[in-house]
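Minutes, methods subgroup
Present: GH (chair), OT, SY

1. OT presented the first of two proteins processed in the latest run. Sequence and structure tokens recorded below as shown on screen.
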Amino acid sequence: MNPKNRGHFRDIHADHLDLAAARSWMSNICGPHRLDAGHPGSVNFQHSGSVLKGMSTTVGCIEYGTDVTIGIVDAEHFNSYSLSLPLSGEQELTIAGRQLHSDSGKGVIVSPNQSQELCITGDCRKLQVVISRLAMRKTLEEMLQRPAERPLEFEQEMDALQGASASWWRMVRHCNEELENSDLFGQVFFSRDLERALIKGLILAQPNNYSDELRRCLAERLPHYLLRARDFLHAHAREELSLEDLEVAAGVSRFKLFDGFRKHFGSSPMAYLKAHRLQGVREEILATHGRRSISEIALGWGFT
């Protein structure tokens, strides 16, 4: 690609913002936070990135141009997981009395529901991924096949040199380069699956408070009748469906169907269908950028 056209496909582009503008810009992406600088007049904030339209995950590069400190003081309303890996320079995350150093070999995770402080050097240019709390919870519940009763909490340090977390960071780097240079990665039908893969990969790669349970879930296979029922619901979610239709597709009694859904998915079959439809409506609303009415989209997903 011609160097002049680099970034042509980017959704996010901020250049030469001052302290107040940088704080406002990132608050809109991550949630409310404090931004302080020893030399406020030296702040030269730059952010170039893309938004994956399925669940509004952002991937890109960011720099402040001078030493800054980010403080999460309203942890309840900080509504995203912000993952960053310096490409140059360094940063330090302070949480619960611990200080975690971050450079090109080690990333850090700033999580919701936790007070923390991130100090970033002026020469730090970093790769950043921002995933909403809602997207993380939805993906986790899909993997668990049941509702999550407590927030997802990761270990804050992410190895970028070895192991599964390093593989995840390599995938992020590749995605970021392709999002900058190719319109394929910006197409919703493609990027939606890419986004899910990124979030699922993170949950599997980085140790968290659900890791043990997820390992057990992966080792446990769903009964064939549940796989048939789930695939039938997904394939016909836009149509008018009844429990009788599902019984025929699954090939088992209604009692066994209800028992299996509650055990493995944490809901009844119709509640599972409704949640799947709502997620489909949400993704389509985000993908169409307001070009179609919400009513039209909802009707297309079987809501009357």
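2. SY then presented the second protein from the same run.
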Amino acid sequence: MLSAPAARAFDGPASDDGGKVSKLFANPLAALEKGLERVRSGNSKDAVEALKYAAAGGQPLAQWKLGRMYAAGDGVPHDDAKAYEYFQQIVENYDEDNPNRREAPLVASAFVAVGAYSLKGIPTAQVKADPSRALEMFNFAATHFGDANAQYNLARMYLDGSGPEKDSRQAARWLSLAAEKGHAPAQAQLGQLLFNGAQGVQRQRGRGLMWLTLARESAVADGKDKWILDIYDKAVSVANDADRQIALVYLEAHLKGRN
């Protein structure tokens, strides 16, 4: 369970432009709408000040969008410290007892982002690697929001033993939940785990090959997912006819169940 979010007083959005930005918008919501409009038109750079005003006014979508922009260097210089700050605002202000369901996807995304930054740390800022906090963030988003990225990251922590003790069985559980949502990296990791077997996870070569096949079909052919193609090719190279036939049966059943 997360600690209660810190209460924050708000008397109006802060601005470092002498109040010029605040005169352009009636309120933070209006600023958010204008900022998003500029983003949609491809004018991310001009959207920044409007989004900052909205974020200072407590608009989670503006905070999330700015976090994404700074993390990607989209319209602003790449800055992980600022990205972390905006995502952290969403995490701190999330009211578990009175959630806004419409904001659930972006809140889950913010938890995952804070978890990822906590796992590795940010050398340019005073954010040290903290696997325990990363585990808390991933577990919360995976459990409360059913977020596939959170479930995958949580599984990876159990696979690697980076924070919790290494536990292939727990990893397989979380990978399975994410894989069923079509998360290609989770499908690949689950497929490899089942194909090879591990302590606490019985080897199921046919079922593993099925998940690897699904992951391969979803993999992006831009180099980012090369690791998925590599483990698929490796499994196929050692699979026998029985493995392939069983995988085909599982694959047909899986696709039929989704349709």
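Chair's summary of item 2: Residues 135 and 154 are 7 Å apart (CA to CA).
Next meeting: continue with the remaining queue.
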